[in-house]
Amino acid sequence: MWVATVPQQPAGPVPTIFTARPNPKLVCRYLPKPKSFRFGAFGIRLRLNKYKVSAVKKQLPELETQKPDSEKLRVGQEKGEGFDLGWLPAFPHVFIASMSNFLFGYHIGVMNGPIVSIARELGFEGNSILEGLVVSIFIVGAFLGSIGCGFIVDKLGCRRTFQIATIPLILGALISAQAHSLDEVILGRFLVGLGIGVDTVLVPIYISEIAPTKYRGSLGALCQIGTCLGIISSLFLGIPSESDPHWWKTMLYIASIPGFILALGMQFAVDSPRWLCKVGRLNDAKAVIKNVWGASEVEKAIEEFQSVIKNDGSDLDSSWLELLQEPNSRVAFIGGSLFVLQQFAGINGVLYFSSLTFQDVGITSSALASLLIGVTNFAGALCALYLIDKQGRQKLLIGSYLGMAVSMFLVVCAISFPIDEQLSDNLSILGTVMYIFTFAIGAGPVTGLIIPELSSNRSRGKIMGFSFSAHWVCNFLVGLFFLDLVEKFGVAPVYGTFGAVSLLTAIFATYFIVETKGRSLEEIEMSLSSDFMSRDK
């Protein structure tokens, strides 16, 4: 298991070493001119340089085979041979952190089917307000968790904050599973939301701070993959609930298991080297960098960390009022706007309405429809994993929202224009699937990743907390009013609005998003600070 190997300081990426290779022509050219010797009457002439040249030629294959491992790795990568494994030392730590996103996805889907059985067993069946409360109290807890996360992570670091957040996650799942009344279910869902709110802020911060710069985007995309797998797992496990009215209890008991894994795994994971440096644990920070990034990165990284800390101030207590100062106010505006636009671009509304869209083409099982959507979301997240460090955040975000806009307008055309009914249904399905896929490529993973990348080391927790609190408020509002708006105005105008907001977000990303691909967090912070200072002069 990977946890057993972490304390042994696994070797990071080996620095590239360029070795000089002797050229036979150059060797011949610069060897001394031949000296001739005669041995007696036989006149035997030996040209010593001939033997020197041949000896050098014989040594060339040996020199080639004796190249250091780093040189072999470099040559292999240039020729397309082998794999680049520089991300591997950080992967176990990122994987454990992504367990939080798995829990997030699981709790999103866990109430989809069983809510009817829960309402029937606990005596509030048919009361849409109470059913909505059981679902929405999760968002209230998540909002409060997001607000409080910044303070905790500044004080205790990411690793301990993860472990603290598992307490409400585990307790909430167990209380909900053993509930005998509506109040107990509501309390359990609130506690789960509280833990999820902390984790949704914490995971992007943790991954952005421990991932090597070159792989920060790809490793950050694992958040979206974790969420997708959590949703798909809950949908699979929810299938028996259609025939077993008590199956919801089992599903909620199962929800506590990833929490235990997360708490235990974080005991062996590393803490953020940036936070360690900020609290004065310099040797620990160097050890983490050596293990995860490679020994060659230690001195450069520590120098950058200390430079930023000197610029920001060494005290740990950042104030919420600092978000009103530049450049924090600009990043907070970008972060809050991205999440507001993401939610009003309609992702939750489209996900909710997708089951009805699939029913129109004969897919009557809501579980099967949700599973198809989950698989599409997962496929898009895999594409993001490959593209995000190649194409960059800004391009992926713009392309994603343009694709979402086209998808929504396609659905609007299919509904509004007088075309064949079968063709209309097929275009609606195509538009819905395209929307989910393009969302998962950029709007989903990039939004959560780019905000901590743009944030300063000192205020990263507060900015992320503010941005995600805006996310949860808008999530609640869309869920509250979506069906009423559809009933009042129809699907086409609502989806058309989603498309227009997607188009607006693509324009916003064009003018406000700074590309962060291939740049360390310290480079980005110093760049934004210098831009502000130059404008202020």
Structure description:
The structure is a single chain. This protein has 537 residues and is an all-alpha fold. The chain is 74% helix and 0% strand. It is built from 23 helices and no strands. Helix 4 runs antiparallel to helix 7 and helix 15 (328-344) runs parallel beside helix 21 (460-489). The model is unreliable at 1-82 (pLDDT under 50).
Number of helices: 23
Query: Unreliable runs, pLDDT <50, ≥5 residues?
Result: 1-82
Strand content: under 5%
Number of strands: 0
Helix content: over 70%
N-to-C order of helices and strands? HHHHHHHHHHHHHHHHHHHHHHH
Terminal CA distance: 55 Å
- The geometry reads as globular
How would you classify the helix and strand content by structural class? mainly alpha
- Biggest sheet record: none
Q: Quick recap of the structure?
A:
With 537 residues, the chain is mainly α. Helix content is 74%, strand content 0%.
Compile the SSE list and pairings.
Layout: H1 24-30, H2 48-65, H3 69-78, H4 91-109, H5 115-122, H6 128-177, H7 182-210, H8 216-220, H9 222-237, H10 247-254, H11 257-268, H12 273-278, H13 282-292, H14 298-312, H15 328-344, H16 347-359, H17 366-391, H18 393-416, H19 421-443, H20 445-454, H21 460-489, H22 491-512, H23 521-536
Helix pairs in contact: 4-7, 4-9, 4-11, 6-7, 6-10, 6-11, 6-21, 7-20, 7-21, 9-17, 13-14, 15-20, 15-21, 15-22, 16-17, 16-19, 17-18, 17-19, 18-19, 18-22, 21-22
Summary keywords:
disordered N terminus; about 75% helix
